[in-house]
């Protein structure tokens, strides 16, 4: 059943304290209403939420207060400020089709998270669908078969969530290959984040890029996760100096990311001053920290960084 169209307002509601404010202040208020702290999960505009879905804490009810607010509120911050998490390709494609009705909203989506919890060795189709969707094609086949690059042309950040690895029914080596393959053809982003489960002091003893955090085992094949993440993020003229490797442990999860320095300082952490240093390669990496590409490459030796160019976060600007 099609929804009943909402007609433009005849009453400007000038008795409202909100609507008497200057337009720029009203738009700021609308923007705050549309900002969710937690990710918005498997959302499709105009469709029921999955039975196990969690309602995001959003102030979108403000759109229902009156017709004037409904028509004048800029919805782009709703899509630009929030992180959208999806567990199937079908759900993410339905989401993008559902927002085509709102002008420029598809281009506004900046942050997409893929949740691997549904992959299963008995259902290989889910794995194949994600790999095809991330093939990053932008031609006719990408439009017909589906491609994240086509669906989200303004994407800045891609997150791959493997925190459910303890419950995923796949061999650890196969799950590791899936994670690596999902990064193979993605490129040109500002940030890529891999989320793993990392609880207990024993897990902290492992390096933040160890497969144990993301698939539950160390002996799973090629140790090239960071290298693949590095290629996903655009580098500019100086690929080495313009990016940084970061990690953070929070709530039993490990967040490993590669990010451009300019995006880090301007959009994520304005107080970031530079990567952490170790006195010796035998020292443990801090629970939360960051390092340069050079430090990662020479993580098993005491080779000194040749210059300090990469330590200044403004070097990429």
Automatic annotation (TrEMBL):
InterPro entries: AN11006-like. It comes from the Eukaryota. This is Uncharacterized protein.
